[in-house]
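Before the break, one more example. Copy the sequence into your notebook; we will annotate it together after we see the structure.
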Amino acid sequence: MSPAIDPEQLYRVLRTPDVVDPVLLVHFDGWVDAGRGARTAIRHISNVTGAEKLAEFDTESLLDYRAHRPTLHIVNGINADIDWPVIELAAGRDSDDRDVLILSGSEPDHNWRSFVEAVVGLGKRFGVRRLVSLGAYPAAVPHTRSTRLTITSPTPELVRANQAGATLEVPAGMAAAIEAAFTSAGIASLSLWAQVPHYIAAAPYPAAALSLIEGLDDAAGISIDGGDLSEHALTIRNQLDALIAEDEDHAQTIAQLERHHDEFDSGGISAEGTLAISEELGAQFERFLRDQDDAATPDPSEGDVVDGDPE
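Here is what the structure looks like once it is written out:
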């Protein structure tokens, strides 16, 4: 067994901004994220808050590079550069000039307990008042309805569940470990989850990202401008509607999902019994959204990712 690592050796603080009662937002690539909802949301938030890196973690001690391989950039046959995976803590400000910290990057493979202690230490150092991790999961919901949000937390008072009485045993992600540690340290912590239609969960779904961003106001008092995400989500919605209208069977299936969704919201049915949707329809949606994503992705030579881009 490898010896325990001193948590303070896992990171390097680059600067010490004067932040006041910040909220810490967390998302790690590689964890549950249907429709890339959380990834899109955290990147959008980083852009619009003007977040700047204030600490970086030692990925040599935290990551398996065979699972998180660096990206090699080849230009005209020349190996131009290598981008290594990172785990970073950044700081920005929301629309109301409130401080926001953002922890993002690849989910660690090694030294979880030491990493958790390191994050808690940084949280105390910068006076974090609340931690919110972002995620998205596939659910039996239609894209024609507003995206539902679910809250899970170690603290019962913070929970807003969509499945009354549900008891589950699932693999835990790093965010859950951090939440538990922050709660033990007396810092309120929760996860905000967006429900993504399960038939398009493998493709980019900007409506999920927009819902997460809007939900941060109630969950943590953070106000973030949705920017181009709203327009992009509406465009995808309209084009999906047109695709469905071309096939009566697909339209009937979506209508069933709508009835299930609306009846649940009215308290008429239980959450049990997920409606199945045809593999053909799911494959069509995934291909469609991937095509839209490819068309919207900017040329890397043109600079950073633009605000609202689903990548």
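The radius of gyration is 20 Å. Residues 203 and 291 are 10 Å apart (CA to CA). Try to locate both features in your own notes.
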